[in-house]
Amino acid sequence: MTDLHRAVPHMLIVGAGAIGSYYGSKLHRAGARVSFLCRSGGDMLRETGITIDSLHEERFHFHPQRVLMAGEPCPEPVDYIVLTTKVLPGISGVDIIRPYLGEQTVIVLIQNGIDIEVPYRQAYPEHEIISVLAFVCVSRLSPGKILHQDYGKLALGNYPEGKTPYLEALVELLRLGGVTCEVTDRVQEARWRKLVWNASFNTLSVLGGGVDTAQLLADEESCQLVRQVMEEVCLVAAAEGHRLVPSIVDEQIEHTRVMTPYKTSMLLDYENRRPMEVEVIAGNPMRKARLHGLSVPRLEMIYRLLRLQDAQRRRQRG
Amino acid sequence: MTDLHRAVPHMLIVGAGAIGSYYGSKLHRAGARVSFLCRSGGDMLRETGITIDSLHEERFHFHPQRVLMAGEPCPEPVDYIVLTTKVLPGISGVDIIRPYLGEQTVIVLIQNGIDIEVPYRQAYPEHEIISVLAFVCVSRLSPGKILHQDYGKLALGNYPEGKTPYLEALVELLRLGGVTCEVTDRVQEARWRKLVWNASFNTLSVLGGGVDTAQLLADEESCQLVRQVMEEVCLVAAAEGHRLVPSIVDEQIEHTRVMTPYKTSMLLDYENRRPMEVEVIAGNPMRKARLHGLSVPRLEMIYRLLRLQDAQRRRQRG
After folding, report:
1. B150 CA to chain A: closest CA distance, Å?
2. Model confidence over B167-219: pLDDT tens digits?
3. How many Å lie between the alpha carbon of A10 and the closest alpha carbon of chain B?
4. Quick check: bond before B73 cis, omega within 30?
5. How far is A204 from chain B (nearest CA, A)?
6. Among candidate residues A247, A219, A131, the one with its CA nearest the CA of residue B310
7. Which domains can be identified in chain B, with CATH numbers?
8. Beta bridge partners of A38
9. Cα A242 vs. chain centroid, distance in angstroms?
């Protein structure tokens, strides 16, 4: 254990969904004190704890150190505050974490999308930010009941770049808990690499009417579309200074082709009538393209269609 | 009445859906003998006839001259055979009409899309083809029960171009029945004009998650998308030799903006889990663009996404 924070660090995880619960369980296993901050279902979590069932790992059950409702004060300092919720307009992680930030609290973002760190950097310029990408298939079956289906690797780095001792300490903990970690000093490039997949497979699985990865790739026309969207994302990444290797498109397509057919997280959100991460997955890269004067007609169209879909779902939810 | 055919012409309408029933009723009103060829529900039509309820016109009820099931011989010659079914892959209007074609039978197509006449011209090079576009909001509530909501104009011309006496005779009948007709000797250009609307509003209403015309135009991003798709269609039309006036895009958008919010026919097909006219609305213009080496990324993406959606619906129907 590092002694940068307390000997046994206290992690406050924002969101007791699939991602928060799964990685929370790993940190707990590593010996950290793991608390949760949630919007609902707190009593349930307090009473029955969290169970992770997995197709590949042993079943794991644990009780969080504390379960707080949003805004409820935390009597002990937080070493790492870990955001694992979806990034949606109108839900401000920045405001949610304010009561829990001590001087040394590190902000950890395990979330998808581009530029998600910007509001935190602006609001808390003195706080260290660790930006994390999760490569995992995991879903919440009910409050406190998580199903881990596959994978689990994290890619981590400091925002906007570099590696600090706090990052190394977090990685040490995660590895102790059994998580494969890829540490990078260029985490934004890693974000763009993941976006190549998310901006194509996630979005097209919804816009194609609810198709899985295999169905997207089975049709030659839509496979071509996946490729073109990926190429547009690479174009924007390059303009932002992140030159992804050109083979990334083929590699991601071929890698996905051999995966078990997979419903993307955006499609699961869509099917369950939950809001989709349209802005950070499609909107932000499209706006970057506009800033650079780049033409990305497919990415732009994806953004516009998903906006419509999301608004329509909101109307349907009433 | 013209004496080109019999004094009282015999019209065989293929498809007793909304379009076939509505214009069939007008031809009946004008004194023509109107028969129907259908795939199902023939007994019902024979017994109870067809009723047109309208928000703007008087209720109209009539009994067809004959109701034939597909393939059933027709004991009297057909002067005009009028196709009003959707144009879908795997359903060959060319084969369906073969038993009913006499030497003088005129083929009339009241259908959407581009290049729909080609298979008929190839199969029946000696037969006259009249190509028709319907501007009407009409729907079938149940077999033989039609609701006319708005509009009703037809645009007609001979394929590939020109105006023949048979066309004039048909127009005379339709006008006698109360239909506003716009006769053109450049019907293909009229098809492209209609496609400007169909390839944008119809397709995007589905891909936007089931939105009506007002919802499409209310969002500035999606309104811009409508405009760009329209511009791509105009580009292909021009390459095909049909130079549409550039103001057509603004005109169609502004005209749609003042219409009562409207669910497109493709959206109704989608919602009712019926096949959509993807190939003739999006596929054919996209293939024309490819032939001319034109880049139409939005039209291409529309085609690819609708193909996925259509295939997904087929799987869901089982």
Report:
1. 26
2. 999 999 999 999 999 999 999 999 999 999 999 999 999 999 999 999 999 99
3. 44
4. no
5. 8
6. A219
7. 10-185 (3.40.50.720), 189-317 (1.10.1040.10)
8. A69
9. 20
Yes or no: say if A177 and A187 are a contact pair by the CB < 8 Å rule: no
Strand pairing partners for B155?
Answer: B133, B182
Interface test with B, best of A226, A301, A317 (most B CBs within 10 A): A301
Q: B131: closest CA among B169, B68, B82?
A: B82
pLDDT digits (tens, 9 = 90+) for B70-125: 889 999 999 999 999 999 998 889 999 999 999 999 999 999 999 999 999 999 99
Helix B220-239 / helix B187-197 crossing angle, nearest 10 deg: 160
Residues of B in contact with A309 (CB under 8 A): 208-209
User: Which member of A211, A224, A307 has the closest CB to residue B221?
Assistant: A307
Higher pLDDT, A55 or B3: A55
Cα–Cα separations (whole angstroms), residue B193 to A103, B82, B253 = 65, 22, 13
Q: Phi and psi (nearest 5°) for A63?
A: -105, 130
Is residue B51 within 8 Å of B60, Cβ to Cβ?
yes
Half-sphere exposure in the Cβ direction for A50 (13 Å, CA): 32
The pLDDT of residue A1 is 38
- Residue B2 pLDDT exceeds 50: no
Question: Cβ-count burial of A142 within 10 angstroms (0-12 exposed, 13-18 middle, 19+ buried)?
Answer: exposed
Query: What tokens appear for B240 in the block?
Result: 């095909």
* Block residue for tokens 């034109």: B294
Task: Provide the ipTM.
Answer: 0.90
The region of weakest confidence among A33-37, A297-301, B262-266, B276-280 is: B262-266
* Whether pLDDT at A315 is above 70: yes
C-alpha dist (Å) from residue B15 to A96, B93, B134, B143, B174? 60, 10, 15, 11, 18
Q: Which residues pair with A287 in a beta bridge?
A: none
Q: Is the pLDDT of residue A2 over 60?
A: no
Select the residue of A222, A300, A304 nearest B307 (Cβ to Cβ).
A222
pLDDT greater than 90 at residue A3 = no
Give the CA distances from residue B88 to residues A6, B93, B283, in Å, rounded to whole numbers and listed in that order.
69, 9, 11
Cα pseudo-dihedral B154, B157, B163, B169, rounded to 10: -40
Those residues whose C-beta lies under 8 Å from the C-beta of residue A199, and which sit 6 or more positions away, are A229, A230, A233, A281, A282, A285, A299, A302
| Closest among A106, A243, A103 to A169, alpha carbons compared | A106
The Cα–Cα gap between B60 and A155 comes to: 69
